[in-house]
Design a protein that fits this description.
The complex is a heterodimer. Chain A is mainly alpha-helical. Helix content of chain A is 91%, strand content 1%. Chain B is globular and about 85 Å long. The chains are: A mainly alpha, B mainly alpha.
């Protein structure tokens, strides 16, 4: 137990140390710490904000995608319907055209057969006249016997 | 260490050992201590190593503080900031008031005391051997916290701060009022003369207890650190004494026990510094409380 003046020296050293620490060491350090803490807090806040906006954007994108899907579906459906319509229409047109062609052909056939028949009766009449003239041995005046010939032709025609 | 060679020579083992230890327990002082308290004596070793440790604290911390930025800290800056934050947190928990001076004070006390304590981890004969062979100094106790002056110097400094903050927070009147009313309270004065007697009696008792409180607090503050470091130092001497026997067993024991005790002492060095700081904060914190 040797107490002496060393005690007072130590006391003085204690106060000098704590004073120097307060004056020159503590303030810059605590300022730096607080500033960095603020920076980190800001960084975290902005990260959180970014997270939130990312989530929002994602939700947005999902919504847009969903809408696009729906629209695409609608368009496909519309296209299908339109194509069906076109096919139906084409089929109708084709059918009508076919029928018209058939009708035309029929008409043509009737016309042709009528013409052929007329020709034929004319030729038959001529043959009949020439045959009769041969049989009679003389010229038959076609004009004089026109009535007769016509009648004949008519009969052949029917006959 | 050199002296112990004598111890191993003959049957004077205990004498050699006690001489070794008492030699190591002798301060480097300007003159011989005359009484329990001798104002003319200075322990030059305690003063030198206290100031050295103070500079070992101040200079690196000052450099770190000067270069500190809010950006990414370097390793040393991060370490210093860790200590600063740690101490600030403790100070905030203990003292409810302005910390402008108190928190830096706690930091300087913690690091300074830890550095002084850490001298104990150096081989017990290293510094005295250097002092002897290089500076021709025969006695040296390098551990300032194993000197009562070293620990009580700080403890009394804390006591002065306790008085200062008491008066600053409560005013002289409030502080005086606390002396006569705490811890037992006091009677209300009235026209009845009995209350006067009771008031006086309780005031005396309260003042006595307040004195005991402050003396006890300061005594235990300084004594706790001193006791721990003194005992630790002494055990290092004893362990070194084992090696000094220059027998195989002695050297083996020195190695094993010295390692174990040094490892354990790392804990004590830091723990005692922490406790010392915490007690300072507790006492100063109490000065801030209104009764």
């Amino acid at each position: 137990m040797n107490l002496n003046a060393t005690l007072f020296v130590q006391l003085a050293v204690f106060f000098v140390l704590s004073w120097v620490t307060m004056k020159f060491i503590w303030p810059p350090l605590i300022t730096a710490i607080d500033e960095r803490r603020k920076k980190i807090a800001d960084g975290l806040a902005s990260a959180e904000k970014a997270d939130k906006s990312l989530a929002e954007a994602k939700a947005n994108a999902t919504q847009v995608l969903k809408e696009a899907h729906a629209q695409a579906g609608k368009i496909v459906e519309q296209a299908n319907r339109r194509s069906n319509e076109l096919v139906e229409e084409a089929r109708g047109t084709a059918l009508a055209e076919g029928q018209r062609l058939i009708a035309d052909a029929r008409e043509q056939v009737v016309l042709d057969s009528n013409r052929a028949r007329a020709q034929l009766s004319k030729e038959v009449a001529a043959i009949a006249v020439s045959g009769a003239s041969k049989l009679l041995g003389r010229e038959i005046d076609a004009r004089a016997h026109a009535d007769l010939l016509d009648k004949l032709a008519l009969e052949i025609e029917r006959g | 260490m050199l002296k112990l060679s004598i111890a191993s020579e003959g049957g004077h083992e205990s004498g050699g050992m006690s001489e070794y230890i008492s030699h190591h327990l002798t301060y480097l002082s300007n003159q011989v201590q005359g009484a329990l308290f001798d104002i003319n004596v200075l322990h030059l070793d305690t003063i030198f190593f206290s100031i050295l440790c103070g500079l070992l604290f101040l200079i690196p911390f000052y450099l770190a503080a000067r270069r500190s930025t809010a950006g990414v800290p370097g390793r040393f800056q991060a370490f210093v900031e860790m200590l600063v934050e740690f101490v600030e947190e403790q100070a905030k928990g203990m003292v409810h008031g302005k910390l402008t001076y108190i928190a830096p004070l706690a930091l300087s006390v913690f690091v300074w005391v830890a550095l002084m304590n850490a001298i104990d981890l150096l081989p017990v004969d290293l510094l005295p051997w250097i002092a002897h062979n290089v500076f021709h100094i025969d006695y040296l106790r390098p551990l300032p916290t194993a000197d009562l002056n070293g620990t009580f110097g700080i403890a009394i400094g804390v006591l002065l701060l306790v008085f200062y903050y008491n008066i600053k927070i409560k005013g002289v009147g409030g502080f005086a009022h606390q002396w006569i009313t705490a811890p037992f309270g006091n009677v209300k004065l009235s026209a009845n003369p009995l209350t006067w007697v009771g008031f006086l009696l309780l005031a005396v008792v309260n003042i006595l207890f307040t004195i005991i409180e402050y003396v006890g607090a300061t005594f235990s503050h300084g004594m706790r650190l001193f006791g721990n470091m003194y005992a630790g130092e002494l055990i290092f001497f004893l362990i070194a004494g084992l090696g000094g026997t220059a027998t195989v067993l002695g050297i083996a024991m020195h190695l094993v026990m010295g390692s174990v005790w040094a490892l354990f002492h790392i804990l004590i060095v830091l723990l005692q510094a922490f406790i010392f700081m915490m007690l300072a904060l507790v006492y100063i914190g109490q000065a801030h409380e209104h009764h």
